[in-house]
Amino acid sequence: MLHPTPAPSGEERSKIRRVLEERLTALARAHRVPGAQLAVHGGGSTLAVQTGVLDADTGEPFTADTAVPIGSVTKAYTATVVMLLVADGDVELDDRLGDHVPELRRAGPPCTVRQVLSHTAGLPSGPDSDQVASVTAARYLLDHCTDRTLVMPPGTDFSYSNAGYVAAGRLIETVTGMSWQEAVRSILLAPLGTVPSFIGVAGPPHRPTARGHSANTVTGRTMPVRQNLAPAEAAAGALRAGALDLVALGRAHLGDGSPGSLPRELAEEMRRPVPGADPGVLADGWGLGWALFRRGEALWFGHDGNAQGTCCHLRADPATGVVVAFTANAGSGTGLWDELTGVLEETTGIRVPATPAPRRPATPMAATSQCTGIYLNGDIEYQVTIGDGGGLAVSVDGDLPAPLVCHEDLTCDLVDPSTGRRIPGGRFVRDPRTGAVDRIQLSGRMARKSALV
User: Fold this and answer.
1) Are 46 and 246 in contact (CB under 8 A)?
2) Contact 116, 287 (CB under 8 A)
């Protein structure tokens, strides 16, 4: 067992390590993941295992020190830096965002720092990275974060937003006088003992870096892929880190890490559920920078992240002090993670929440025209129609429509056309004043109805 009590003996730890390494290797092979890391902290000690290679082309081995593009887990680091500025008195959570971000003082949305960190600011998800590859963060905000682009009034609901974290990164820059990378490095990574590594920035030569991979379904070959995150989006997803680094962040939030940990009251504030923030299929709740996951009576905090061809997960339990982190250098690592949580429970007794449980029971509802229409989130267009078979279908930016199964509570499942398997997709939302369906939330991102079809 790796729970805080009782602590395992040296022989037991060796057995647990051996079993986890064997199972991680077998699961990585089954899910066509070239390399992966798992780190588990509990009972005053940390166990780490890894498997495979960091680059399918070079065959260089994955090590405990390997840094992986962690995608949106970067947001938890950005939010922590903002909270450290709050601790120093430089920022107040209920300050208007425009008070600290000059580009948003005139036409910016009327949202607060707190709302930005909790994805309740009403901001759109943000444009495709290739679309903003050559713009600054300031230009990005001027073009994509205005009061005209809001998908909902600030503070009324949840909509996952990369753009919001571009704004949070810009806040860090204006308050500290440093670039986001410099501020994260000096304020957070150095106290945590994390060797800094960022997408698009030359990293330390002594730290190995994993590439992302995707599987070619025709040839069966797993190929490295290129990271295309725009520099302006750094605060939303540019960090590279290993599983041990993620554990260090989780421990810092539990007051069990470096001397640079957050004050307890602010750490608790970050993992407190924000009223009205319903992230749908992403998590069971949301705090300030943290997703919240319920497992029985326990409420864990953490974050998931996907860069190009990578998959990373962090979970921490305030009640027991257990922290679990996982990284994989393939998009198919999500399936590996889901199975690995079961292995962890069998091997260590730690019951890690992988993904939110489906909200059931729910009664299927006949397709209805009240849900059809064109919904917009920034530049993203969702078109919901009634298909030839009489059921609902959704198309994103003109792609082929995917079937939807809607329930009486207005939650909906996406149907995999190839397997017929239902995947929790999101929910439709009614206007509280009129009762009409005026928004749809898919994968945590809210879109506003703009027209009927």
Assistant:
1) no
2) no
The C-alpha atoms of residue 78 and residue 180 are separated, in whole angstroms, by 9
Q: Of 69, 93, 118, 404, whose CA–CA distance to 240 is shortest?
A: 69
SS (H, E, C) 216-252: CCCCCCEEEECCCCCHHHHHHHCEEECHHHHHHHHHH
165 Cα distance to chain centroid:
12
Q: Quick check: 59 and 49 in contact, CB under 8 A?
A: no
Whether the pLDDT of residue 3 is over 60: the answer is no
CA gap 32, 414 in Å, rounded: 25
- The band of 13, judged by pLDDT with boundaries at 50, 70 and 90, is confident
Nearest to 36 by CA among 331, 329, 342: 329
Is the C-alpha dihedral spanning 400, 397, 212, 326 positive or negative?
negative
Q: Which two tokens stand for residue 118?
A: 């909790």
Strand partners, 298: 295
User: What does the pLDDT average to over 413-429?
Assistant: 83
The lowest-confidence range among 219-233, 266-280, 334-348 is 219-233
User: The pTM is what?
Assistant: 0.94
Which pLDDT value is given to residue 262? Answer: 87
How far apart (Å, rounded) are the C-alpha atoms in residues 212 and 70? 10
Mind telling me the catalytic residues? 72
How much is the pLDDT for 271? 97
Give the CA distances from residue 271 to residues 19, 144, 208, 241, 315, in Å, rounded to whole numbers and listed in that order.
32, 28, 32, 22, 12
d(CA 7, CA 378): 51
Tell me the three state secondary structure of residue 73. helix
Which of 118, 108, 49 lies closest to 82, judged by CA? 118
H/E element, 176: helix 162-176
Which among 200, 162, 209, 204 has a CA at the least distance from the CA of 327? 209
Using N-to-C axis directions, what is the helix angle for 137-144 and 162-176, rounded to 10°?
A: 130
Place of tokens 């005053």: 44
Q: Which two tokens stand for residue 220?
A: 């069966």
How many Å apart are CA 395 and CA 406, to the nearest integer?
A: 15
Secondary structure class of 298 (helix, strand, coil): strand
- Spatial distance between the Cα atoms of 20 and 329, rounded to a whole number of angstroms: 18
Q: Is the model more confident about 418 or about 256?
A: 256
Report DSSP state, residue 207.
S
Residue 450 exposure: Cα atoms within 13 Å on the Cβ side = 16
Is residue 224 predicted with pLDDT exceeding 70?
yes
Q: Do 432 and 410 touch, CB atoms closer than 8 A?
A: no
**How many residues in the chain?**
453
